[in-house]
Amino acid sequence: MVGINVEGSPLPKYLKMLTPLCAISATLLNAQTLPAQDANKLKIGFSIEAMKGERWQTDLDSFTARAKLSGAEVISSDANGDDDLQFQQVRDMIHAGVKVLVLLPHDTNKAGRMVDAAKAANIKVISYDRLALNSDIDLYLSFDRVEIGRMQAEYLVQRAPKGNYVLIAGSPNDEGAEALHDEQMKVLRPSIDRGDIKVIADFYTKEWQPTEAYLHMLQAIESAHGDIAAVLVSNDGMATGVIQALREHNLAGKVLVSGQDADLANIICVAQGTQAMTVYKPVPIEAAMAAEQAVHLAKGEQTDADRTISNGQKTVPAILLKPVLVTKENIKATVVKDGFQTLKDINQGLSKDQQIN
Q1: What does the pLDDT look like over 151-177, one tens digit per residue?
Q2: CA distance 265 to 129
Q3: Which of 3, 94, 104, 266 could be bridged to 236 by S-S, CB 3.0 to 4.6 A?
Q4: pLDDT below 70 — which residues of the chain?
Q5: 220 with 229: CB under 8 angstroms?
Q6: CB–CB of 201/230 below 8 Å?
Q7: Residue 31 and residue 23: Cα distance in Å, rounded?
Q8: Proportion of the chain in helix, strand, coil states, percent, rounded to 5
Q9: What is the Cα gyration radius of the chain?
Q10: The predicted structure's pLDDT at residue 3
Q11: pLDDT (tens digit, 9 = 90+) per residue, 221-261?
Q12: pTM (predicted TM-score)
C-alpha cells in the first residue's frame, strides 16, 4: 500500500489541551503492507494531498492526538501532489477497513472518484480544509475562506486606497483558491469602479508554489515599472516568493503584501515590515475537531455542523472556523500566545532593533 502510515493509543481533549496537541508528534510507520491491527479498533483514514511546507504536519499531529484520545487508529497518507496516487492511497485505506475517510484533496474537481469509492464501501467522508466538489461528502470542515479573502483585501485597501494592485492567487485546481480570489475582488470592486485601484496583474499559481509566485511578481514589477501599491497574495508560501522579487528591486517594505497561514518565515516578515499582514488559522483546533467529527460519524452520531454549503452536487453540512488577522502589532497576542510560534524562533530571524519583547 503506497505511502500509507498507521497510528494508535490515547491522549488529552482537544479544546482544553491545545498546547499539548501542538507538541505531540505522531510516530508514522512507512510500510508497504499494513501490520496486523486490533480488529475491533476504530480506524480513520486521513488522506493528505501533499505534506509540503510546515502546515500539514501540524494538522496530522493534532488529528492523530485527538483520534488516539477516542481510542481510534489513524491511517494516513501523503500523495505528494499526485491525483492518481491519492486515489490509490484512498483505495488502500478502504481495504484496510477505515470507517471514516478524512480527505484533503489535491484537485477539488477530481475528488469525486475518491468519495465515490469510499461511499460504495459505506464509508463516511469528511472534506477537510478544501471542499471536494460535485461529490457525496458528509461534512465539510475548514476555516471560513470568504472571511479570509475579505480580511486580506480590506486590510490592504484601508492602507493603500489608491494605486496599482497585483493579485497572486493559489492553485487553479483548488476550489479554495477561487473562493479567496473571488472575495478579494468583491472587496476591490468599488475602488476599481471608481478608478482608485487598478489591477495590473492577476495570476493563479500552480500548486501554490513560491517559485512561480516569484516569477509572477517579477513579471508584474517589469510591466508596471515598479509602480505597485499592494500585492494581494493568498498564502504565506507564495508571499515569500513575492517578497523576494520585491527585495531584488528594492521594493520590499514599500509595497503592501498580504498572506495566510502565519508560517514562521512570514511572521518574521510581518515583524520586519516586508509583509503587511497574515491570517492565523489555529490548525490544531481544526485538525482535532476533524478527528472528533470523524468519530461521531463512525458511531452514527450527529456532527457539530452549524451551517451548510453547496459543493455543486449537494448541500453539505459544514463547520467553518474563524480566522485571525495578524499584524506587527499583535504577533505576541495571537500566534505567540497560542503557542503556534515561539518568541524565541521569531526573534532569531530579526535584527537587534527589530526584536519583539
Answers
A1: 999 999 999 999 999 999 999 989 899
A2: 22
A3: 266
A4: 1-39
A5: no
A6: no
A7: 25
A8: 45, 20, 35
A9: 21
A10: 54
A11: 999 999 999 999 999 999 999 999 999 999 999 999 999 99
A12: 0.82
Cα–Cα distance measured from residue 47 to residue 75, given in angstroms and rounded to the nearest whole number: 8
**Domains of the chain, first to last:** 4-137+282-321 (3.40.50.2300), 145-281+327-354 (3.40.50.2300)
User: CA-to-CA distance for 354 and 331, rounded, in angstroms?
Assistant: 13
Q: Which residues pair with 214 in a beta bridge?
A: none
The CA-atom distances, in angstroms, between 86 and each of 46, 245, 280 are 11, 33, 28
Q: Distance (Å, rounded) from C-alpha 251 to C-alpha 244?
A: 10
Q: What is the mean pLDDT of the chain?
A: 90
> What's the CA gap between 262 and 278, in Å, rounded?
6
Pick from 266, 264, 218: nearest CA to 239: 266
Nearest to 187 by CA among 134, 147, 236, 129: 147
Strand, helix or coil for residue 3:
coil
Cell numbers representing residue 356 in the block? 519583539
What order of strands is seen across the sheet that includes strand 124-128? 4-7, 73-78, 43-48, 100-104, 124-128, 139-143, 315-321, 307-310
